Amino acid sequence: MDRRSESLRILNLTFKIIGPLFLAISLTFEVDDNGKLWIMWRDDPLLAATCCLLAVFAFVGWWRTSALLQARGKEGIRRPRIPSEQAYNIWRVMDPALRRRLAFAVFLMFATVGPLSLLMSTAFQPVRPLNIFIVTFCSGGMSASIVLFARKPLLLILAVAVFLAGNIFSPEITGALEGRPVPSVPATAGVLTLTEVQQSDIRAQRALVGFIGAGLLACGYVMFLRLLIVEGRQRTRLASEVAIAQRIQESLLPSAGFSNVSYEISGRTQPATEVGGDYYDMIEAGSGAIVVVIADVTGHGVGAGTLAAMTKSALYAQIGHNPSPIPALENLNTTMRAVAERNMFVTMAYVLLQADGRAVTISTAGHPPVLYCGSGGLPVREIRTASLALGMARDSRFASVEQRAAPGDMYLLYTDGVVEAISPGGEQFGMERLSATLRKSSGLSAADCSAAVMAELTRFTGGNALRDDATVVCIRVR
Asked: Which of 194, 229, 279, 470 could cross-link with 295 by S-S, CB 3.0 to 4.6 Å?
């Protein structure tokens, strides 16, 4: 047993046995000031039962913690870091005007702490208006500063410290500003004699303080409602725009597969968000040839879907002139370089199927390799050509690979969202699992093959949402 496993075993034993035992002993027995042993079970059964219940909860928590420690130790090595998008940060994306309105609403609601603290004070004495203003402003300001300076830790700490000090030393600040100290009632005072008029004034002042607190709370609630209404309208507008973009993106994809006497083609896609950045198509070129493409735009969402639509338009225009892979990719690269932003590009796998069903030309532009599974039971082979993605460089050069196909041969095109899918345990789907799935599906139709790959992907991820768009296209030679 190595040193790490031994340490984890000791921690496990401590959490399971020593911790609950120490808690039970400390809560059960106590020595009073006279040196007499006080036994909780005998002297206070209700308190003993309560402590016993707390001990049970603590024991369950410790037991669970020890199990997690033990499971962590059995892993042996640290899991690989899962690549993911930057975590959503509301403070980063919030509009500055909305942030200020939210801070004001928080200020109004938490400013009520000031008046309430005066009402809860045990000192039955007149309340000075300036003191009410100071504690109210400091209570609200301390909470509002959290919203205003959420991304500025130094300013946040400074603001909270200033407002907290103002709240604590409000009597002294009030006395200094008014030029006369605030009278205080000693804690040891016995009977405090007040006239009827003084009592009436103090009650009226406290009622006014209560109304101020209630008014601030009501105003803060109204501000929150206004913010919710504005945010709801914006969400509705954005949802409508996303729905339109989703319909446009869905219109880019073929409504059904393709089949003729030589080939059978089928594709499936599963976007990671409402609007995906993956695109695939089956296009009939001249002389009976078929062009099959699959593309992956960087990222996903509305921006990626828009660039995918532009890619389809440019592709159709190019295929009308020359469907050969190299000139098609070169012209697409020129177009993407001109219209796309510099931080966005498109990877693509381009397959040209000749009409006779025997010649297949493959070219890839920064895309994962095409998988080829022969009809004779040969191992799955990767086919790719070295080149950059479309739009990355102005002078990119492309190449192609041509091979003879036999009846029963299968080609699988896919995006990196398939091989990079993550299981609940943190494992990647990977090329080996994808190749094995293709090999098991070699005798199926193209539609059944693509369905089998997506079903295996769903099973592997446990039905969890994908981190990137996943698309597959299967080509079967008849």
From this structure: 279
